Amino acid sequence: MNGDTDALITSPDPLHPANHICSLCHKFYGFGWVTGTGGGISIKHADHVYLAPSGVQKELMEPKDIFVMDFRTKEYLRRPKVLKPSACTPLFMAAYTHRGAGACIHTHSQWAVLVTLILESGAQHHPSHGKDVFCMKEIEQIKGISRGGTGSQEIAEGGRKLGNLGFYDTMMIPVIENTAHEEDLKDTLEKAIGEWPETCAVLVRRHGLYVWGKDVAQAKTQCESLDYLFQLAVEMHKLGLKWI
Amino acid sequence: MNGDTDALITSPDPLHPANHICSLCHKFYGFGWVTGTGGGISIKHADHVYLAPSGVQKELMEPKDIFVMDFRTKEYLRRPKVLKPSACTPLFMAAYTHRGAGACIHTHSQWAVLVTLILESGAQHHPSHGKDVFCMKEIEQIKGISRGGTGSQEIAEGGRKLGNLGFYDTMMIPVIENTAHEEDLKDTLEKAIGEWPETCAVLVRRHGLYVWGKDVAQAKTQCESLDYLFQLAVEMHKLGLKWI
Amino acid sequence: MNGDTDALITSPDPLHPANHICSLCHKFYGFGWVTGTGGGISIKHADHVYLAPSGVQKELMEPKDIFVMDFRTKEYLRRPKVLKPSACTPLFMAAYTHRGAGACIHTHSQWAVLVTLILESGAQHHPSHGKDVFCMKEIEQIKGISRGGTGSQEIAEGGRKLGNLGFYDTMMIPVIENTAHEEDLKDTLEKAIGEWPETCAVLVRRHGLYVWGKDVAQAKTQCESLDYLFQLAVEMHKLGLKWI
Amino acid sequence: MNGDTDALITSPDPLHPANHICSLCHKFYGFGWVTGTGGGISIKHADHVYLAPSGVQKELMEPKDIFVMDFRTKEYLRRPKVLKPSACTPLFMAAYTHRGAGACIHTHSQWAVLVTLILESGAQHHPSHGKDVFCMKEIEQIKGISRGGTGSQEIAEGGRKLGNLGFYDTMMIPVIENTAHEEDLKDTLEKAIGEWPETCAVLVRRHGLYVWGKDVAQAKTQCESLDYLFQLAVEMHKLGLKWI
User: What DSSP character marks residue B196?
Assistant: First the structure.
């Protein structure tokens, strides 16, 4: 079957989704975001959804390992025989469907996990949302985060705000509880996306982060900004400083 | 002698054990796992056991430096003249013999050493095993760890579990005490392998980690997952959070 | 328009400002100084000011992305159509105008941000300047810092000191408060430059660092020395040690 | 003049001292050992002493930047015109003269500096030597350290021990106080070398480390092992654990 479908993942263009997913996985491995086969990434290109496989060494990924799904029919147009599709697939689809995202990244970053553990312990918490939302404000890097993940998300309360957060805005990232099987996160993740229209990401307790953007560049730079903020938050906590 | 045996370590295939050991040592050096000539790695290919030498700079290793042993006779088929075989050799053999492993990695990772020191101090401990086992649970990365190191280990208590640990399983890695000479760890390491049929690794107090897998990919990705979990455990401890 | 002005950014010389800005951005990305499109860099070459654009992935920057401004007229000689000039531009110009700098770097380094947060908390402070100046002394790396950023700055109090700080000198870096919009930092940054003639840099609370030098090499090595000192200061604070 | 002396630093062999110093400086820059032009390295090859220059960006060093001194006459055989010889030169010469070293490395590693600060604070100390010696024992990586730095140093108390430290030996590295000018460290460094015949290194308070070996490989791997032990010591101290 792959013989018929290799055209989907063959291109000399380094920005073709099949090539781009591989070069990003190599980079993310260097950041510790996808160590031990954890984490993943997906790019939506028109009606084709490109997906990294499950359980592979991310720094060795090649275009031939990439799955391709038809966004409308949800059927795989290309399935590498010896590999399994990522268990994150339904979660990536949620960002495409509900946010109009063009790319989605999942990391196991330790900073993300530690932030969820600190919240769980109650040592830092939000006055109304307790351990279920990560908040920061008045840190310049927050300006790297767009409203809704794409900067064009309609806000629930009638009005509409566009673009990125400002220095005096409070960034709020919802935290959902982990489940035994990754695909079972779909319902709570979709619920969080619905309840937090300004968020560009969802934290999963004791697990990691899902973050999206209108395209790969935005998903990646938002992932970098969030990871920076999570690390800063952990260091602040060690130094006895409050996040908000 | 090497003239006759160079064929054992000469191949254009980057995945040939002699080449693969070298490229992995270069990578592990970057992770701080084999700094200052510490640590080591071995690959078993059919009845040939490939071994990195002792006391060399791991980031400069070349195929000509590799030892090859016959697994059945335990005799060296290839011995580079100016080098000594790794003192870890009997420990690697234990994983091959008792677990059917296909690759084994030894690191001096600081996170592994720190975890054994925290346990020794009594500041974190297991209710029944005290300072002699490292436990974690309900962290997603635990799912990167296979039962018994290969996923097909027979469990002592009659039944049989296959595959990887789940999110709600407790990962338990035994800790043995260090000895003056590395080869003297053989008996306690074999005892730990016998007593902990589900473990994929053994921690050595104030020293480092031994981890194996059915093949190189599994040994390496399990080593990555464990190192991630050890680092997370140290950071959790700094933040006042319990491991279990 | 760019067709006419590409000559300004086209050179086979790796030290040409357009090429040099790109290679430095790639390096600084690796240090975590310009993650998530944050931070920036500028080089002044005779009367041409070269500027990295705003909001781009710094590790992917190419010469075609570079803005060029005439230092005397403050008019852009080259403006890439799809990009915006850096919001730091007025801040870089301040270092060129008031210090005779030849290069200026802006980082979002977490160590810089953490130092400003520790000062804000009052846990470390200067006897007379409180939270508004970062001080260190008797650390060898301070000798990597020049007086005034270029080593030839006239000192306000009549006399004149040249060259770099010594081991027994106290390094003092002023801290200004952040603003909602980066360009609004211009007035307080210029005020700080005026009031602290010996400084080579200005810290911006909860934001990052501006540092300059007489040329690129000095700006970069001073940025490295400061980042080293900020990281050391954070680690010292964690260990309960005073900075002065 | 250089025209006549370029033969001293020109070779296609990557292990020729002039090439080797450059490749090691590039590597050490990546480790944070020689950031901001700090630190240095020297190799002795027969009666020629090769020295990195002062105040240059270590990751950009080229063979043409290297100084060469005659070990017997202490005269420079090659002096790059625009550069200054390293202020560490008399300190490197001390290791060559008093220990028969073949290579010497000087780092500004933060872990080394932090260890000297922790000792200064009295929070960790040696029963008889107080803040003036760094001690560790029963950590496997100590076995990477040779007696006297070369493994063949005659020990003051009559007897003679060869080779590397064992797991149950106590590693003791003397700490000397910093001075305003690096060359003024010569006397106290020579005194420390004389008083501590088993040491392979001298720590300089609030400054960094000098470490040597019989050749480059030994100096470098000992520097790696020490840096590993200093980092481990800082982490142990954060966790409330004693070094001895």
Answer: -
In total, chain D counts a number of residues equal to 244
Mean of per-residue pLDDT scores for chain A = 93
Model pLDDT, residue D210: 97
SS3 C20: helix
Name the catalytic one among B59, B62, B140, B195: B140
What pLDDT does residue D220 have? 98
Q: Within D9-88, where are the H helices?
A: 17-31
Rounding to the nearest 10 degrees, give the CA dihedral for residues B208, B214, B217, B219: -10
- Give the whole-number percent of chain C exceeding pLDDT 90: 88
Find the DSSP H helices in chain B. Answer: 2-5, 17-31, 89-99, 110-121, 186-195, 216-238
Distance from CA of C242 to the nearest CA of A (A): 14
CA distance C115 to C208: 10
Sort out which chain D residues have CB atoms less than 8 A from C235's CB and list them: 110, 114, 234
Are D150 and D101 a contacting pair, CB within 8 Å?
yes
pTM: predicted TM-score of the whole model, two decimal places: 0.96
CA separation for the pair A58, A35 (Å, rounded): 8
| Count of C-beta atoms within a 10 Å radius of residue A165 | 21
Q: Which two tokens stand for residue D136?
A: 């560790």
Cross-chain CB nearest to A232 (options C37, C113, C204): C113
- CA of A212: how far to CAs of A184, A219, A231, C29, D188, in Å? 19, 5, 19, 21, 59
C129 token code pair: 């300047």
Whether residue C219 has pLDDT greater than 90: yes
Q: In Å, how far are A33, A92, B168 from B237, measured between CA atoms?
A: 21, 33, 21
Q: Give the closest residue to B42 by CA, choosing from B108, B107, B102.
A: B102
CA distance D64 to D41: 15
Residue of D91, D117, D238 to mutate, interface with C, max C Cβ within 10 Å: D117
State the pLDDT at residue A151: 85
Residues 6+ apart with CB under 8 A from B141: A35, A36, A38, A108, B225, B228, B229, B232
Question: ipTM greater than 0.85, yes or no?
Answer: yes
Q: How far is the C-alpha of B184 from the C-alpha of C127, rounded, in Å? A: 58
Rounded CA gap, C64 and C77, in Å? 13
Confidence tier at B156 by pLDDT (50, 70, 90): very low
DSSP label at residue B20: H
Q: Which domains does chain D show, CATH number per domain?
A: 1-86 (3.40.225.10), 101-243 (3.40.225.10)
Beta-carbon contacts of residue A117 (< 8 Å; ≥ 6 apart) = A205, A206, B236, B239, B241
β-strand B48-51 against B133-137: which pairing, if any? unpaired
Determine the longest span between alpha carbons in chain A, in angstroms.
59
Q: C10 CB contacts (<8 Å, ≥6 apart)?
A: C18, C63
CB contact under 8 A, A38 and B232: no
Closest chain D C-alpha to C200 CA, distance in angstroms = 14
Residue A68 β-bridge partners: A50, A78
Q: Give whole-number Cα distances, C227 to A232, C32, C94, C234, in Å.
A: 15, 11, 22, 11
Give yes or no: C177 in active site.
no
Q: B146 and B184 in contact (C-beta within 8 Å)?
A: no
Q: Which of A37, A108, A238 sits opposite B238 (nearest CB)?
A: A238
Closest of D187, D189, D171 to residue D244, by C-alpha? D171
Rounded CA-CA distance A72/B121 in Å is 57
Taking only Cα atoms into account, the Rg of chain A, rounded to an integer number of angstroms, comes to: 18
Across chain D, the runs of DSSP E, i.e. the strands, are: 40-45, 48-51, 67-70, 76-78, 103-107, 133-137, 170-176, 201-204, 208-213
Structure tokens at B76: 């060296």
